[in-house]
Give the backbone structure.
Amino acid sequence: MDAGWIKLHRKVIDSAVFSDDGLFKLWVLCLLLANHKDGWVKVDGVLQPIEVKRGQFITGRFALHKVFYPRRRRRNRSAKTIWEWLKMLQTMRNLDIKSCSKFSLVTIYNYSTYQDYDEQNVQVNVQQTCSSRAADVQLTCTNKNDKNVKNEKKKRAHAAMPPSLEEVTAYVGEQHLVMDPGKFHDNYTMNGWVQGKGKPILDWKAAARNWARNEPLFQGMKGTGYGKSNQNGGIGRIRSGDYGVPNITVCEDAPESVSDSADEARPLLPAEPEAGG
């Protein structure tokens, strides 16, 4: 039971089964229990093995309940309720149930149709998604997950190739940006071309435009160069933020306000006469 996998079409989201948590869990469980190939199953109390074809499985009321609830808890639904849910799936034409005194044989409708199609344009009969109506549709089986992976690889490849100083200078000239391309290139080269949170810069041109918009803020802060001391002895540090938005932190030891000395503040007194005057 712990080996292999099944295919689940995205259209199941639009089905009536998906709206009910318990019913949807039972439907997925039926897909997992179904045989992926033809075989024979030995049932207790039955002399001859039972042939179980692909898309079928043998179960019973209490056996299905035990698989549905691996752990016994007080809030679990009863075995009768789970079996009623199975009959509801039969009513919705998702599966068929053939019962006898010893066991029940469950057959998933259109099992091979949905479990066998490959990554090509195929004609399928839409019925597995818990709908009583059937319609012929053309499915273009595009693996969106592979597409997302390819996009991520492109982003990482783009981020792994930082621009040269010549490229930055040329782009600044083309866009007529008012900025020093050398400072921009040196700053991000020193930081490894990453943003403030350590994420790689995916679009250095956007970072350059933001840098140009914030260039006046750089120049407006006196003494906040690249590690240069300001006139008051403080250190101005410029830390690059997301996409070229600078986070400027200025640590200055504000000079203490020196007021006039006490002697200067005290009113002047007339000078004492010299002795013998």
